Amino acid sequence: MELPPIVDFDPSEDIVFPRSVTPRLASGPFMAEIRRHPVNSGKVVMWHLGNNGWILKDDQGTLTAIDPYLTDFCASQRTGERRPKSRILPVFIEPEDFDVDVVVITHSHCDHCDPWTLERLRCRSSASFLAPWQAMKVIAECGVPRENQHLMHPLQTAIVRGIEVTGAFAEPTDFSDLNHMGFVFRFHGDRVYYNSGDTAKTELSAHVRSMKPEWMSICINGGYHNLSHWEAAEICALIQPKIVLPAHYDTMPHNLQPPHMFRKSLFEKARDVAYLRLEYFQAYEF
Ligand SMILES: [Fe+2]
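A: This is the predicted complex of the input protein with fe (ii) ion.
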């Protein structure tokens, strides 16, 4: 990918936030489009599903999902009825259509490890699931077969469907889960991507630099002890990827953050790192 311009403010970027989002495709057709999408040799294609939800596709056609939050469970449990804290971002792919090969879950909080998503997931019996202990308990309770469960720890590496996945340290954000993790992915073609998961500020995040991620995504919301956009920029300065994608700013009405403010912080704190916000329903090749 061509490096995005390094500027503190892009007047062409949509700064009115949040805007209501209208899905470009219905659930099934969007999943089918992702399945069909070609990937050039040595490249990785990526889609943003909102919050810390992503799909990555490597040049072997393997689909890896991170933290798919595909319901309104955190607000309305299994009712789906609108509540004051109900999600404002539509669900792009319904769990019954969600068909990937690898699912990586960073921790057990419901906007990342959602039982209502997991128990309905189309690929629940076929995909490989990687997660730390507290999240894996939820995954197991949702009916994922034991042979598809891969319990992960920081610095542990697993090779799953040809993808090298290494656990990274993340600082817990409250007492409810003391097993947060980030993950580093090495895809075919030696392409390295880091997902921070949810983390409070810790300089231990700097250990990821030794794995040389080309691009990373990081939480910027500042709510519930997650990194603020300013702190996230400081972590980027420690890790030094080429490109960073803002994450976790768009789904919960009580936990929003205009992403262009992260671009400004990045310009001040990590000027060598390019900012890239992924548009929904758009494929980006890295
Ligand atoms: Fe979260």
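The chain has one domain: 27-285. The helical segments are 27-36, 73-76, 115-118, 133-141, 229-239, 260-269.
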